[in-house]
Amino acid sequence: MEPESEAELAAILAGAEAPFRVQGGGTRPVGGARDGVPLTTRRLSGITLYEPGALTMVARAGTPLAEIEATLAAEGQRLAFEPMDHRGLLGTSGEPTIGGVFAANVSGPRRIQVGAARDFLLGVRFVDGRGQVIRNGGRVMKNVTGYDLVKLMAGSFGTLGVLTELSFKVLPGAKSAGTVEITGQDDASAITALSRALASPFEVSGAAHLPGGGDGPARTLIRLEGSQGSVAYRAGRLQEALAQFGDLGFDHDGEAVAGIWRDLRDLRRFHGRDGDVWRLSVKPSDAPGIVAALPGSEAIYDWGGGLVWLLVPRGTAPAKIRTPLAETGGHATRIRGEAGGGTFQPLPAPVAALQEGLRRKFDPRGLLNPGLMDGPAQMASD
Q1: Which of 86, 105, 111, 112 is nearest to 268 (CA)?
Q2: pLDDT for 380
């Protein structure tokens, strides 16, 4: 089903007798195939308000992400949280939508500096499982209320309601960017270097490590953004601070730098390769040990080591991934692979009960993404 208006969507849900598989552009399915009639928001499209001076935008949920980004770029602005494009990793097609981005709380490498997608969300309109239209929050930063419900919807994966319109903050784009790179570091040394860079006063906007392999030596990457002079000065100071880690290079070619971080954001290294992909949220200092405890895996470290993307053999048991996390307080989400064993990290019983209570409140008939019962609250907390 493809409703063309919020009222039509509300009528569909109010009169429904069977469950729905809620999606935006269909580019980032969660939990594999699920039961239910496909219900897409792609026809609920269009930017309804954009105030560059106020750094705010309002758009319908089905608006293509590409349209949002092109409109912002024309005014020298951007979605600072840098949402990932899952199509190459998951082998999907279609167009990512702004509603899908916020429904899954999709955030990229700049998350360590500016926050997650949910931190930019000001207000929402959505239709709940009863067919009721609910509005929460505001349309501009100076008129925002009800933050709790707004943030609850970010990362709920369509299990509490179908988003129809969102208002969100945007930020100016960077005039210049550069990457400080260290080559040949092992995982533990790389995480130490990234942690030191992030603790420095040099406003790091990206901190990642790509272990070595068949395509070359290990690369430890640190991104700086701002005016050209500021980036050059901070890069020099950062190279001095990290001199003990060996020779450091600095790339300030705009297109090359953008390409490096776009490939990292979209996990290009894992495209077209067989195996399951997991997303681990951990304490950075724990990350190398956790990866070492999973022989046969290949890792990409982001957020200074706080986010680890793992490529593991197809069919690897979820318990094998999650057991090393048990003592560290981390959690793991399966992004690609079979759904058996649960996509999301199992929640503690009290939290699971709270989550189930929320679902019964917003979707008492269990119409919205049935079977996706575990994990949305956990995912939204990343």
Answers
A1: 86
A2: 41
- Give per-residue pLDDT as tens, 134-179: 998 876 665 555 447 888 999 999 999 999 999 999 999 999 999 9
Q: Coil, strand, or helix at residue 13?
A: helix
Nearest to 237 by CA among 196, 270, 274, 206: 196
Residue 378's pLDDT is 43
Cβ-proximal residues to 114 (8 Å cutoff; 6+ apart), any chain:
80, 81, 171, 205
- What distances in angstroms separate CA 106 from CA 48, 98, 103, 212, one per listed residue? 22, 10, 8, 27
**Where residue 84 falls among pLDDT bands split at 50, 70, 90?**
very high
Instruction: In whole angstroms, give the CA distance from residue 85 to residue 225.
Output: 22
For the segment 285-321, what is each residue's pLDDT rounded down to a tens digit? 999 999 998 888 999 999 999 999 999 999 999 989 9
Question: What is d(CA 315, CA 205) in angstroms, rounded to the nearest whole number?
Answer: 35
How distant, in Å, are the alpha carbons of 331, 332, 348, 358, 374 from that of 353?
A: 19, 20, 9, 9, 11
End-to-end CA distance of the chain: 31
Quick count: other Cβ atoms within 10 Å of Cβ 38?
Answer: 12
Using a CB cutoff of 8 Å and minimum separation of 24, what contacts does 286-294 make?
A: 286/328, 286/330, 287/187, 287/191, 288/186, 288/187, 288/188, 288/191, 289/324, 290/324, 290/325, 290/328, 290/330, 291/187, 292/187, 293/324, 294/320, 294/321, 294/324
User: What is the DSSP code string of 216-274?
Assistant: BS-EEEEEEEESHHHHHHHHHHHHHHTGGG--EEEE--HHHHHHHHHHHHTTGGGTT--
Is the pLDDT at 341 greater than 60? The verdict is yes
